[in-house]
Q: What sequence folds into this?
């Protein structure tokens, strides 16, 4: 059936997606066709598993692909013929107009490379099956391999290069670069020069020290079609990279490092914050800091951990002299780094004490990425952060509003069956949880170095010891749920308590609690078997407080 994209996903914000619950039952798992979609993100077109996202320009609705079919991935050459991938799929370029058909499916996981889900597991994806399910109807100029300067921009013009190709039936008629900077918000436009092959070069005028420079590249063809690249950023540093902040602090409105994909020399004197022995794999957690202010921590990664081979220990000071700056699905890191030892036998910086409510602010969390943090009086609100999937070694903690994942990536931590529930229980209060702040699969999370970085349970003495000090309403678990979920709440003083559920339009659905209750912690079950999928609100009302949260029913 032919549908419009907004029948699958609504657009709660710019380039974000949420299931259109009105049509979910009718369209989920159906083979649908959507015409006239525009590709707005296609960062790894020839990779083993290309990710690409599309939008309806008229409605703002967006969607991305799910590559279940081998026709749209290149990483299964070891499958028996004829089930192997052919390694020849190239994702459509940014700016292309396509007709797409496939199975409409709810997200299978929180993996969200384009960060469009609101939430990640609450949007529809489309699964094209045959190679003919994707038809490019118009291919404007394709702008790829945008390359910033090979060294950090200083007091001289900034040279940007890019590969620009036209559709085979067309020719390029021109290319230009439009820029703005921190000190010159009006900026300007410069015309590109074709150098060799498909490579074009652009020169941005010299900018003041420490300015962020934002730019896009546009190209037109003989049919009047125009493509414009996504915004890219560089930063001018007359003295080069001398602080972690130079790498970590993004340009306004961007979460990425201004030196993404740059390999460069640098002069970073940093303290090793992680025991290299706990991160001896190529994908494990290894971080350094050059202070305790925001933007002072960063992750390191290499094909093998060179710090271990050099005898470097936690607390030692090293100088990183060069490396490649990358964004690994939102996590800034230095890869393939070179270093020298400055001093040994020191101590790491003390952990910064934070709250889960503070880290719920994505901008604040971003500024603390890669730094050693400590959450005190942390209640275990879920032993499986990914329920009903998993467990994958992650549990949720909270010490007020919001929650935070705790992961077992360290080589010193593991659970039987990857299940934190074999060690911890919901409702336990841990004296503290300490670890570096990591980011993966669209979630910030603490990475304790070992179980010694998790304090003892403190709420096992007497009932009076654990009476809540404030009235609060916790996030339901599991969430999303089908059809039952548990809602926990704290009552600070004896009095009338009402806990009610409402639908997204504010209509009353059910009253779960309506009675006088003494101070304490309570949990009730909500069974939504008779309700349809969608967003619901639950509200706790006491004499001194009213708190409302949302939950998602997925059937």
A:
């Amino acid at each position: 059936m032919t549908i419009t994209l907004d029948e699958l996903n609504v657009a709660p914000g710019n380039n974000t997606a949420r299931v259109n619950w009105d049509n979910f039952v009718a369209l989920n798992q159906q083979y649908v066709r959507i015409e006239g979609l525009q590709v707005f993100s296609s960062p790894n077109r020839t990779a083993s598993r290309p990710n690409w996202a599309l939008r309806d320009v008229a409605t703002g609705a967006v969607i991305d692909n799910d590559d279940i079919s081998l026709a749209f991935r290149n990483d299964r050459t070891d499958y028996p013929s004829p089930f192997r991938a052919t390694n020849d799929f190239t994702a459509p370029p940014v700016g292309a107009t396509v007709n797409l058909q496939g199975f409409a499916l709810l997200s299978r996981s929180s993996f969200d490379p384009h960060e469009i889900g609101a939430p990640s597991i609450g949007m529809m994806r489309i699964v094209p099956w045959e190679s003919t399910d994707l038809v490019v109807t118009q291919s404007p100029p394709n702008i790829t391999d945008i390359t910033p300067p090979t060294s950090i921009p200083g007091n001289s013009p900034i040279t940007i290069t890019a590969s620009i190709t036209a559709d085979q039936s067309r020719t390029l008629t021109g290319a230009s670069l439009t820029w703005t900077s921190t000190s010159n918000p009006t900026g300007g436009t410069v015309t590109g020069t074709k150098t060799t092959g498909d490579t074009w070069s652009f020169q941005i005028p010299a900018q003041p020290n420490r300015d962020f420079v934002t730019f896009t590249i546009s190209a037109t063809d003989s049919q009047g079609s125009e493509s414009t690249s996504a915004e890219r950023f560089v930063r001018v540093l007359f003295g080069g990279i001398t602080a972690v902040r130079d790498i970590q602090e993004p340009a306004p409105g961007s979460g990425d490092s201004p030196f993404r994909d740059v390999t460069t020399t640098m002069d970073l004197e940093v303290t090793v914050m992680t025991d290299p022995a706990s991160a001896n794999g190529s994908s494990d957690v290894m971080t350094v800091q050059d202070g305790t202010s925001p933007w002072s921590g960063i992750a390191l990664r290499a094909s093998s951990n060179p710090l271990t081979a050099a005898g470097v220990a936690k607390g030692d000071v090293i100088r990183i002299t060069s490396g490649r700056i990358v964004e690994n699905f939102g996590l800034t890191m230095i890869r393939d780094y070179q270093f020298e030892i400055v001093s040994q036998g020191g101590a790491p910086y003390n952990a910064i004490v934070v709250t889960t409510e503070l880290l719920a602010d994505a901008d604040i969390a971003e500024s603390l990425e890669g730094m050693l943090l400590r959450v005190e009086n942390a209640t275990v609100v879920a032993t499986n952060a990914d329920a009903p999937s998993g467990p994958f070694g992650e549990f949720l903690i909270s010490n007020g509003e919001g929650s935070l994942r705790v992961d077992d990536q360290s080589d010193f931590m593991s659970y039987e069956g990857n299940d934190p529930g074999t060690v911890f229980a919901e409702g336990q209060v841990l004296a503290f949880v300490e670890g570096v702040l990591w980011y993966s699969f669209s979630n910030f999370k603490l990475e304790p170095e070992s179980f010694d970085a998790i304090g003892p349970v403190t709420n096992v003495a007497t009932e009076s010891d654990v009476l809540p000090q404030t009235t609060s309403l916790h996030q339901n678990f599991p969430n999303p749920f089908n059809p039952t979920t548990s809602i926990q709440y704290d009552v600070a003083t004896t009095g009338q308590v009402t806990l009610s559920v409402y639908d997204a339009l504010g209509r009353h659905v059910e009253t779960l609690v309506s009675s006088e209750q003494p101070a304490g912690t309570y949990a009730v079950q909500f069974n939504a078997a008779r309700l349809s999928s969608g967003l619901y609100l639950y509200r706790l009302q006491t004499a001194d407080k009213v708190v409302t949260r949302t939950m998602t029913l997925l059937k």
About this structure: Residues 16 and 116 are 4 Å apart (CA to CA). The radius of gyration is 26 Å.
